[in-house]
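Recap from last week: sequence in, structure out.
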Amino acid sequence: MQTILLIGTGPMAIEYSKVLLAMNKKFIVVGRGSKSASLFEQKTGIIPELGGLDLYLKEKKLNKNTLAIIATGTEILMSIIHQLLKSGVEKILVEKPAAISIDELLDNETVLKPYNDSIFIAYNRRFYASVIEAERLIMEDGGLQSMHFEFTEWAHTIEPLQKAEGVKENWFFANSTHVVDLAFYLAGKPINMKSFSKSGKLKWHSKTNFVGAGETNKGVLFSYISNWESAGRWGIELLTQNRRIYLKPMEDIHVQMKGSISVIKHEVDLSLDDKFKAGLYLQVEEFISGLTNRLPSIKEHIENTKKIYSLIIK
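Predicted structure tokens:
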């Protein structure tokens, strides 16, 4: 019998629970602190198993048929992966970026290699209705020709956040890669990329100003920019022979047709993304089904980290 294990009782775990409940799935929630568990119960009606994963695994025997979703704080994602693998669980969906830093992820590459095709990273923006529609429009136009993206973070809102040690210091890897992953999911992997970055006045992040350009293995020319000490926002612009597609904000889709200066909102069915955290329902559905076409595997994530993220943040 298949068991679904949800680890964590924070905001993301609540969002996963909403999806699983809507799917009529039976699942077990494992948490640590009583405060977050109490809030979790209020929001979902589900009473979590308390004491953390260590205690739960001492009392329960898990197997390869267990599906585990890790929705804990960034600082313990990798340790939870190790605990689950040691307990026999092989099918894991872990919140991005699966480790607190690029170094921690790459230091574990050898250990994770046997599970290349059974651990998946929860980059839920791949499942946005806007993204799926953008893919359809790109195909309709005969393919993507060029792309521009931006991953500017609002440093003034991040600065006061209370996070575990190392989380804000690795904010690009922990947060900005949502945009970068999606950009190269749509345009193909870079085969020739030049990246430049500079430090700024932020005390909690080594780099604040980024720019780069190159070409992907699909023949798409791309550029990117990001300045965390200036104005800006996340966004992706996709150029075909007929139109420019804007994912800015990424939950919506706007289109500018060739020969026009008008940018028009493109209507798309957002019912799932409005009811649940955007992209989450289809992401969980794919993970449970086992037909993982959009979800990035740990192997792909490590390759992206080595060949893309490390270059951007160098």
